[in-house]
Give the backbone structure.
Amino acid sequence: MGSEPDAAELNGPLLARVPAVVAGEEVVPPWREQLTVRGIVVSAILGVLFCLITHRLNLTVGIIPSLNVAAGLLGYFLARTWKAALARFGIVSKPFTRQENTVIQTCVVACYGLAFGGGFGSYMLAMDQKTYELIGADYPGNRAEDVKNPSLSWMMGFMFVVSFLGLFSLVALRKVMVIDYKLTYPSGTATAMLINSFHTTSGAELAEKQVSCLGKYLSISFIWNLFKWFFSGVGDSCGFDNFPSLGLAAFKNTFYFDFSPTYIGCGLICSHIVNCSTLLGAIISWSFLWPYITTKAGEWYPADLGSNDFKGLYGYKVFIPVSVILGDGIYNIIKIIYATIKEIVNTRSKEGRLPLVWVQDDDGSSKLSSEEKLLNEVFVKDSIPPWLAGSGYVGLAAISTATVPMMFPQLKWYLVLSAYVVAPLLAFCNSYGTGLTDWNLASTYGKIGLFIFASWVGQHGGVIAGLAASGVMMSIVSTAADLMQDFKTGYLTLSSPRSMFVSQLIGTALGCHCSSHLLALLDGLRYWQS
């Protein structure tokens, strides 16, 4: 990789591209006026939609792309539609501002973020009876006592007691992360640029074209799925779900095309590095590695095992990829921690070498300085008191430390307390890394917590304790990174941090509710055991 650009070099062009936002021509509404009933209703509608999309991707593809930009676009479209509908009946509504658009986007991101960070497609499903039977009752370490079938009651309760801590863990450092360190947060910056462009004359026309294009391809995808359903094969037989595009020999090794718009959409939205890496992994594993291990049946593992037995080929298919992912995650964590320490040291050394007098070179630099000054003033004006963040985190941690062991007796109170002591440090590292690379490594931090706490508890209850502790770590680390990403968006759109924080609280509460219900609906209502 090349040398990383300086933070000032990154932020300078970004500020230069938004002169209309900070020219002082518009009046920034107070933070209470940025929170509207219209915005909350639109956020709820989009939050449910995006939770459904995230659950679908989580349970099929396993890759969750950033949907911040889509949330900003659809929030703009629905709010403008709301305003136009009221105007037809002669009802005059409040102007729709870029600040309200940002608050809507923040609430939606907080809502659907829990569908991923809440572990609804990972550790929660790993606790149930189906996973226990899939591994095998006679598998070493797989005990019937380590089964906790998900139910709507404890899932919602667990989400409510652990999901809000991430919001309070780093909110006091928002000025440090956004203004002092000038972290880029690529997705948050791109969303801010989009929202700023919408609230202009030409931007409104652009938004209409984008929504029209979105509706067109959504209709094509829906019609194609309906058509494919009529011609899908029965079981694993040939059909549009299992089309032998590379021949029957390749079909036996699962090389076929299923004509799924979901996978095509993920391929379009993911970077070429992700797509090429996924394709390379598929070719190596299914073309060479698994067929070779199959020839060792009877030597490396018993030949008479089922296709889903962890003692056989299926165990190799699971543990080899998990080891590769975990090794890569540990490497990235070490690299990000190193980059974090290096950037902090460089920032402090530069502050110590600042000149006593700064001479403006030209009018452009003076204008940029005034723009940045206004952005900083708005961002700092509606501050969130540090005592509120600290007391909120301590109070919620105390409640969670007392209630989580009631849901998971294997996870003792001192283990939960240990997780909450370490979580802010990991949340800072993850948020800083997200600001530099746009990678949210919450799942990797969760895996590390899984191994640490499971080994700490031992054989008797270590599985459930490790999975529950993994959920606590994932929720805090993921929510904190999403919060800072949204703060960057609010910084560039002159939105109040206070209104955005309240929007995050609303979105988190909505996410705890709808994520649990949607997962129950998607899984055949088997979680309704409250």
